[in-house]
Amino acid sequence: xxxxxxxxxxxxxxxxxxxxxxxxxxxxxxxxxxxxxxxxxxxxxxxxxxxxxxxxxxxxxxxxxxxxxxxxxxxxxxxxxxxxxxxxxxxxxxxxxxxxxxxxxxxxxxxxxxxxxxxxxxxxxxxx
Length: 128
Fold this sequence. Notes:
By secondary structure, the protein is mainly beta. 0% of the residues lie in helices and 42% in strands.
């Protein structure tokens, strides 16, 4: 008896502006160094917005979680940080205090994201 495989295709269209809050949640990343502590200094996000939507800073927020937890800490992006960008632009988000952790996960609600870069340094001391 042959196995039946069903292939489905989504044929809908995206609305001009999304309704509700939609998040992109990245994996919990240890940057290839699972036994070391890291200090997270900044996150750089290459983004663009819908044409004509104005600034996205009022709703834009990034949240982070550390060490495999499930509680995100929200950091709101200042209004001057993310102007409307119909071409790709880079937002540099620095935290109010350096984050020390073993792994780091990011959640954001931006419209279009090309890449995300996390600036970190490993700390050479024992993990408790």
